[in-house]
Amino acid sequence: MFGPDRCPQIKLSPEDRAMYDYAARKFLQDTVAERAKFNAKNIDLQHWAFVKRRKEVNIFSSVPGSTNRSTILMVGTGLIDGRLEDVMGGLHCDTTHGLRTAKVLLGYDLKDGSVLNAHERRTPEDPFRFAGIKWFAGKCAWGLLHDRDALTYERMGTTTDARGHELTYHTLQSIKRPEWPSESTPGMLRQHTASCYLYRRHHRTNKTEIFLWGSILKFGSAPEKAIQLGVASTWLNVVRSPRGGRAKQFSALMDEADSHQWMPSSLEAPARIATSVAAANRSSGRTRFARAVTRACARTAPSSTTSSSSASKSHLDPKPNSSLSGYDTSECSTVSMSLSSSRSSRRDSFLSRTFSFKRPLDPFRPRVSLSDDEAPDELDLDW
């Protein structure tokens, strides 16, 4: 079965789901344990070498390397300038349009992408939930060899460490599926990778603490240092996630305003956001998906002669959907709509309803034993 974008829809058997979830659970446990052992304020230079920094996040590579000599092991740590809700909102996507829009806003040089399976989706009470298969292709960083694509099983949600600290997680692990083999994308080389992101509120600064642990299979004849720089550049795109999360909130506010036929106090915000996205895309040479996002912004801004009920609407991300399959065919948009001051109390009420972060207990909550995980307090970074 194929979706509207001609990518296959993959249906997982219970056995496949159990296998992928077991691997993700083990990977998450290992990452939580690594986080407990890693001292970001006193990096052991005999074990970790600095690779790249973006804003307040640093990436290091393992000096001893992995037990598998063909694998590069890397770690990242630091602070993202944004609330946890904005960070996760900018990363979460469970539809093909949402995936493409999120990748563009994060700064990926995306060529194509699709959500091939989504058997767990978010709900208003659990907005970070996702489990499924994603495929995306992009230009190889630093111009190394061929362009790359990746087919990954991903999980997002919340967990706790041994001391009861709540962490949000995002695991990505390369998989092989007969429905979407590597040769299905001519001119691309399939990248094999595994990465796990852990996020935690940093209350003192109102930022988000991040710990990233992952590995990537060496490819081609490129020098290992060049591969490390390329991978680090890709992983560091996560620092841009808050702007994507805020854009989704603006889009949801616009939808609420349209549904109530509220009159906006200004039409400058949609044009300003569309212009900023277009400028960012031009400066970094984005692909056709970036242009599609900008066009959607322009289409969404209503003219003075068009009523809000007849204006074309498009959304950055669809509302939470409990459906286990299917593809979203709505347009993408990064439009914000500022509401009049008389509606401020109603707007606050809408935000509290739509973005409720009192999540129910997550059945996918692996824990690390106390002996393995002496979780540190919040990072006190001086960078």
From TrEMBL:
Organism superkingdom:
Eukaryota
Gene3D superfamilies recorded: 3.30.530.20
Q: Where does the signal sequence lie?
A: none
Bias (Acidic residues): 371-383
The UniProt regions of compositional bias labelled Low complexity, in chain numbering, are: 300-313
| Chain spans, region Disordered | 300-329, 359-383
> What protein am I looking at?
Uncharacterized protein
